[in-house]
Write a structure and sequence with these properties.
CATH superfamily of one domain: Chloramphenicol acetyltransferase-like domain
CATH class of one domain: Alpha Beta
Largest sheet: 7 strands, mixed
Helix content: 25-40%
Oligomer: single chain
């Protein structure tokens, strides 16, 4: 029986996908549920499993865009599974047979170049007119091949010489043209759209991370032991601080919809993570109701799914506000781009020990710059600055503002 495998729907509103990579070759025998291809949609990269066992015939090429429901391959379920892999042996020996062909004769071919060594003392010496031209072009005579008698550099040689622009010869100058994945193209489209269609503005502040570091240093081992190896990271503190600030400044937790503004009474926080296929933004739902342990567990779950290529469209759909952490890559300061149709995004950065003034004295503390990019069409300066100050206050006083004065209880220890 010949089974037609069709492209399944990755999610609502997705009408087509792109064949990113075939994981099998035409004529291969595949097992049921074996991953045979990776397909890109404009929201995620998903694996396509074989529906039955048999010999596969591919009906689409890598890079092809195919409609959801279209046939991409056939599986002959009546075909017998090939026994063993003996035929692979000759192929393995082929490279050895080829090895002698790459012997010295061709490798030493360049050595034939010294043959024209029978040149005169004038070789490489420019004529007076040629030297003047080379000096004007700032070209060294040694980099020009002379065509005059005895190898002398003539005026025509100097006129035709091209400056090397300071690039040494002999290096690789190859180029490669690679088609962007559908996901990367969609990300690019959304980023350009966000820049062109929103009144984006960024405001900055700095956070003294000493209080958070003290809590983490005191409780991180107990937290990990109590919660099955779960780490107490910075993201739970920032997510808590953001949800608190969103409730204080609800305009930041809203979106534009034509002539209307949509307000949300919940905080679905999109967390930007870097996956093997590019930027992913999975969503932590109702983050305002989660504990520190709940936030850390959910972020870890989503990050692992993104890393393993198992993230789904549903995992990334929605979100009312985004947090991105460029600090993990060493970024000190940036202006993050809004994740449309959201109206705000908080950028975290690396932590640097810097001298600051504390109660009239200079002290060294671990400091982080934070940035809030927002859509100025619906968020005014008062709300944007107030929101970021509220985030700063919560991070610099987490015990009182995020833990109700009881760190052990907040961390469920």
């Amino acid at each position: 029986m010949i089974l037609e495998m069709k492209v399944p729907s990755p999610g609502e509103s997705i009408k087509e996908v792109e064949i990113a990579t075939w994981l099998v070759k035409d004529g291969d025998y595949v097992e049921k549920d074996q991953a045979i291809a990776e397909v890109d949609s404009d929201k995620a990269t998903l694996e396509l499993p074989a529906e039955m066992s048999g010999v596969i015939t591919l009906k689409a090429e890598e890079g092809d865009t195919v409609a959801v429901g279209a046939v991409v391959c056939l599986i002959d379920t009546d075909a017998a599974k090939p026994a063993g892999s003996a035929p692979a042996a000759p192929a393995a020996e082929a490279p050895k047979a080829e090895a002698p062909k790459a012997e010295a004769p061709k490798a030493e071919a360049p050595k034939a170049a010294p043959a024209p060594a029978a040149t005169s003392y004038a070789a490489g010496t420019p004529s007076p007119a040629a030297r003047k031209i080379l000096d004007e072009k700032n070209i060294a005579p040694a980099s020009v091949s002379g065509t005059g008698k005895g190898g002398r550099i003539t005026k025509d040689d100097a006129v035709n010489a091209v400056p090397s622009m300071g690039t040494p010869t002999g290096g690789s100058r190859g180029t490669e043209r690679v088609k962007l994945s559908m996901l990367r193209r969609k990300v690019a489209e959304r980023l350009v759209s966000a820049k062109n269609e929103t009144a984006m503005l960024t405001t900055f502040n700095e956070v003294n991370m000493t209080p958070i570091n003290q809590i983490r240093n005191e409780y991180k081992d107990a937290f990990k032991a109590k919660h099955g190896g779960l780490g107490l990271g910075f993201m739970s503190f920032f997510t808590k601080a953001v949800t608190r600030a969103l409730q204080l400044y609800p305009d930041v937790n809203s979106m534009m919809d034509g002539d209307y503004k949509i307000n949300y009474d919940f905080c679905d926080i999109s967390i930007a993570v870097s996956g093997p296929k590019g930027l992913m933004v999975p969503v932590v739902r109702n983050a305002e109701n989660l504990t520190f342990r709940g936030i850390e567990a959910e972020i870890k779950r989503l990050a692992l799914r993104a890393r393993d290529g198992q993230i789904t469209v549903d995992d990334m759909t929605g979100g009312t506000f985004t947090i991105t952490n460029g600090g993990v890559f060493g970024s000190m300061l940036s202006t993050p781009i809004i994740n449309p149709p959201q109206s705000g995004i908080l950028g975290m950065h690396n932590i640097i020990e810097r001298p600051i003034a504390v109660n009239g004295k200079v002290e060294i503390h671990p400091m982080m710059y934070v940035a809030l990019s927002y859509d100025h069409r619906i968020i005014d300066g008062r709300e944007s600055v107030g929101f970021l100050v509220a985030v700063k206050e919560a991070l610099e006083n987490p015990l009182e503002l995020l833990m109700n004065g009881d760190a052990k209880r907040a961390l469920e220890l």
